[in-house]
Specification:
Layout (H helix, E strand, L loop, with lengths): L2 E4 L4 H10 L6 E4 L16 H16 L2 E11 L20 H15 L5 E12 L2 E14 L15 E3 L4 E2 L7 H4 L1 H17 L2
Parallel strand pairs: 1-2, 1-3
Antiparallel strand pairs: 3-4, 4-5, 5-6, 6-7
Helix pairs in contact: 1-5
């Protein structure tokens, strides 16, 4: 069976990604299964840029077909911030509660009622030196008045999803059916099952 690399060490992401790809006709390993390598600097201006950068970097280093993703939160009233800087928003050492506080403060300072936001997930698959597949998933919602829920990870406690009437951190197993990452990796799965692993 062909072995592919899922290039992330983020446990929350892996908890969502691996079930979405369960049963595909390839063997999936993660960065934890390989010798450690210094990660690339994410210099892309878009999520797609960074997903492609990471997929091609780890494909070169591992010699394996590599699936990489870049994802984050875009808040309309903040001009799309934190965007590609979602993980580093507020500084590399900032906790998510600290990120939430900063985001709420910026929204207050913006002085607008619009709280619309979306999660974006861009995925790239690289083979050798080349990206051979790209896809994207999004979920539209709003910034919740306050963080709620203990499930999920990252910005989930402040992302209110109107069709559910709750944040993604409160949504439990229902999250994967509607999330940005769920949409993107279902697209990857369909591509693999159509014969891309040959």
């Amino acid at each position: 069976m062909t072995r592919w690399l899922v290039a992330t060490t983020n446990r929350g992401k892996l908890r969502e990604i691996l079930p979405l790809l369960a049963g595909v006709p390839i063997e999936l390993i993660t960065l934890a299964d390989l010798p450690a390598v210094e990660p690339p600097v994410e210099t892309g201006r878009t999520f797609a840029d960074n997903a492609r950068l990471k997929a091609e970097f780890y494909a070169r280093h591992s010699g394996l077909v590599t699936i990489a993703e870049d994802s984050g939160l875009e808040v309309d009233a903040l001009g799309g911030a934190p965007g590609v800087h979602s993980a580093r928003f507020g500084g590399d050492e900032a906790t998510y509660p600290e990120k939430f506080s900063l985001l709420y403060r910026m929204l207050d300072e913006a002085g607008v009622a619009d709280r619309t936001a979306r999660f974006v997930c861009a995925v790239a698959v690289a083979r050798g030196e080349k990206t051979v597949f790209e896809t994207r998933g999004t979920i539209e919602g709003q910034i919740a008045p306050e963080p709620k829920g203990a499930g999920g990870f990252g910005y989930d406690p402040i992302f209110f999803y109107p069709p559910f009437g709750m944040t993604l951190a409160e949504a439990g197993e229902k999250k994967s059916a509607v999330s940005h990452r769920g949409e993107a990796f279902r697209n990857v799965r369909r591509w693999i099952e159509a014969g891309s692993s040959a």
